[in-house]
Amino acid sequence: MSSALALLIARDLRRAWIGGGALLPVAFFLLVAILFPFAIGPDAKLLARVGGGVLWAAALLAALIPIERLVAPDMASGVIDQLLTRGQSAATIAFAKLIAHWLAFAPPILLAALPAAALLDLSTETLVRVEIGLLIGTPGLAALALATGALVAGLRGAGAIAGLLLLPLAVPLLIFGAGSLEGGVGALKLLAAVSLVLVAGAPFVAGAAIRAGLD
Amino acid sequence: MTLIAFDAVTCVRGGRALFEGLSFTLEQGGAALVTGPNGIGKSSLIRLAAGLLAPAAGRITGDVPRALLTDQTSLDEELPLARALAFWARLDRAADNVAAALDALALTDLADIPVRLLSTGQRRRAAIARVIASRAPLWLLDEPANGLDTAALGLLETAIAAHRASGGAVLVASHTPITLPAAIAIDLSQHLPQLERAP
């Protein structure tokens, strides 16, 4: 079973990287971070004050980009049918997809936060807090993206519906993530709790959605 | 040994009963050929046997590994054929079986060609090779002859015969003729749902 999990994760990771699929969210993340200085103006103090929150909002928006390629292509190509026929549970398939998605999504975003922080003139202290927050929060974001991707798989206009579904559910992550920028570990603990709940629940939600999509 | 048994199975899709009261048993070396016009539920029967659908009534027993062939190739398009097949074979702990499966469908020359470049018939043969490589005792084949030329159909029939000779069984749904010696004939038009009786 564990070797099957490793095979599934490796396949999803490989497919995330081919064709630059894993780079698109990063490009989007950087683009959002670049747009803010243009919109707000070259007020370094103001940018430094709102910059941490900007990076969090950018990460949330970037999490939307990969949703449509997480589950829908494998449902359309019969790969999910093949896995279920082999006795893999839908939750196991979803769990493998969650791990692979986090591995493809989070490290590039954490790296991209460095140039983005420079653009926004963030202090080193704020940057460190953003990075710690993103490290704790991205598993939750990945879990939301996966569950949403499974729920909207096969729907027309899936991308737009996915955005409407994911963003409100991601608000707690945003509140505690941005809250952790003020310092103190309280917000980080709450962020970790929210992230943990999402990671624990998403494979089952996504698994049920995959099962429901079979009929 | 019984590989799969249907006991008075009723299939409902989208609120509509497709067939009811279907019973049959597949033993080692056995074969069943499901026939009937389009839309009568042949593919649904295959999906029931694969465990992808649940019967609305009745029971399906047997828990041997199954290999499923549908109208989808289910091979990663960007990979060379041999590597795409190897993914499934490794999941089935049968990675050493890929070369033999390619050979059985005369695909050895295409092993290094990306799946996306294969023709319709070649993709079909590749999907059949995936089934052969799995080493699953029970094959569930939905319209396996679709897109195959005469030579490839012969290879498929040979592969099925070899599989049965080694103790495997096949459940085949097909609307085109396919040679299956001593197969159980399942004509789904004999299992149409009865109209609901007046109270």
Folded structure, characterized:
The complex is a heterodimer of chains A (215) and B (199). Chain A is mostly helical. Chain A has one domain. In chain A, 83% of the residues lie in helices and 0% in strands. The longest helix of chain A is centred in the middle third of the chain and has 30 residues. Chain A starts with a helix and ends with a helix. With 199 residues, chain B is of the alpha/beta class. Chain B has one domain: P-loop containing nucleotide triphosphate hydrolases (Rossmann fold), CATH 3.40.50. In chain B, strands 5-6-7-3-8 form a five-stranded parallel sheet, sandwiched between helices. In chain B, strands 2-1-4 form a three-stranded antiparallel sheet, covered by helices on one side. In chain B, helix 5 links the parallel strand 6 and strand 7. In chain B, helix 2 runs parallel beside helix 4, helix 3 crosses helix 4 and helix 4 runs parallel beside helix 5. The longest helix of chain B is centred in the C-terminal third of the chain and has 16 residues. The relative contact order of chain B is 0.23. Chains A and B meet through helix 1 and helix 6 of A and strand 5 and helix 2 of B.
Question: What integer is the average pLDDT of chain A?
Answer: 92
Number of domains of chain B: 1
Uncertain stretches of chain B: none
Radius of gyration of chain B using CA atoms only: 17 Å
What share of the residues of chain A lie within helices? over 70%
CATH architectural name of chain B: 3-Layer(aba) Sandwich
β-strand number of chain B:
8
By DSSP (H or I, 4+ residues per run), the number of helices of chain B equals 5
> What class would the helix/strand composition of chain B place it in?
alpha/beta
**Strand portion of chain A:** under 5%
Kindly report the name of the CATH homologous superfamily of chain B: P-loop containing nucleotide triphosphate hydrolases
